[in-house]
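Re: [ENG-882] Designed sequences occasionally contain unexpected residues at chain ends

Forwarding the minimal case from QA. Structure tokens:
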């Protein structure tokens, strides 16, 4: 029996792979740039005295460059299975983002672990770079993370991570999440998970708030007749294999979706319907989530930061060279 909050139908994992919006941005590009810089740079950075440089390398660039160096060392020293995992799997792409400090934490769920070989690979190849927390005995997942990155998230959101004490180990605190008193409700648990996986606060909060609406939509898809046009439409609307194509489909089929919601889910609140209509995929190397406000400075800054980290660090060129 899973003791953790909110694991009823296990639709959270399915729809963490589901979410961006038509809401016009209320912020200028400069707002997004300031937000992006604030994620890594102190408010009053001291100028560096590096006489060989014409421009100062910012802290996020240093972190990304050093992270890539650790990734390269791990790849070169690993066996063929580890090399394949790092470069050819979805979990490997997430781990790349953790190396670059784009993503604080990744989870591997029990159903995704075919055998213990995957976990053994982490302990053998990545233990020196990451912490590995196995919560399967408590009904949870295997979590791989950078201690300093997760600590930064926990300290940045004290209202969401209740009772976190910096004298306590990060692993110890993570093992308490999903259980009272560290987690108060299923909605609270979903916000915590979103933040830990690197998503923005507003996307995490709204994703948690409208979980019931998303689940109702998935239930509707399951119940519709196999050969019905509406079922085919929902399958296309909910597809998470082709991010940009699905986003484009949603943009051009708003009226059809609204009609389905009004016909089959008439009691769904209007704000929840609007959330479903506005939901779009946000994606960059190693990070994938959904937001109904994709043009917000927070979402734009996160995606930009991820792409810049992969480019600047050398990770992008290195992966291309590997083929």
């Amino acid at each position: 029996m899973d003791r953790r909050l909110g694991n009823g139908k296990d639709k959270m994992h399915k729809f963490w792979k589901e979410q961006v919006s038509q809401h016009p941005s209320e912020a200028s590009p400069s707002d997004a740039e300031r937000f992006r810089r604030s994620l890594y740079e102190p408010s009053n950075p001291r100028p560096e005295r590096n006489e060989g440089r014409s421009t100062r390398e910012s802290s996020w660039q240093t972190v990304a460059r050093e992270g890539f160096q650790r990734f390269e060392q791990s790849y070169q020293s690993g066996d063929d299975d580890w090399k394949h995992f790092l470069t050819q799997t979805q979990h490997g792409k997430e781990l790349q983002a953790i190396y670059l400090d784009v993503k604080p934490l990744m989870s591997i769920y029990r159903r995704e672990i075919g055998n213990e070989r995957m976990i053994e690979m982490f302990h053998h190849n990545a233990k020196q770079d990451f912490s590995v927390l196995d919560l399967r005995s408590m009904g949870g997942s295997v979590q791989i993370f950078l201690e300093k990155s997760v600590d930064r998230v926990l300290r940045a959101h004290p209202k969401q991570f209740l009772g976190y004490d910096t004298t306590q180990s990060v692993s110890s605190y993570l093992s308490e999440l999903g259980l009272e008193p560290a987690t108060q409700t299923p909605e609270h648990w979903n916000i915590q998970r979103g933040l830990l996986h690197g998503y923005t606060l507003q996307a995490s909060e709204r994703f948690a708030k409208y979980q019931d609406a998303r689940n109702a939509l998935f239930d509707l898809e399951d119940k519709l007749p196999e050969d019905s046009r509406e079922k085919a439409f929902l399958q296309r609307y909910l597809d998470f294999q082709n991010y940009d194509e699905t986003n484009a489909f949603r943009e051009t089929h708003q009226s059809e979706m609204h009609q389905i919601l009004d016909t089959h889910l008439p009691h769904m609140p209007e704000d929840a319907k609007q959330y479903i209509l506005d939901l779009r995929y946000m994606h960059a190397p190693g990070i994938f989530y959904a937001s109904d406000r994709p043009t917000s400075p927070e979402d734009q800054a996160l995606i930009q930061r991820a792409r810049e980290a992969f480019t600047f660090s050398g990770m992008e060129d290195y992966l291309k060279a590997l083929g």
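QA comment: On inspection the terminal residues look reasonable. The beta strands are 105-108, 131-134, 142-145, 280-284, 287-291. Proposing we downgrade this to a documentation issue.
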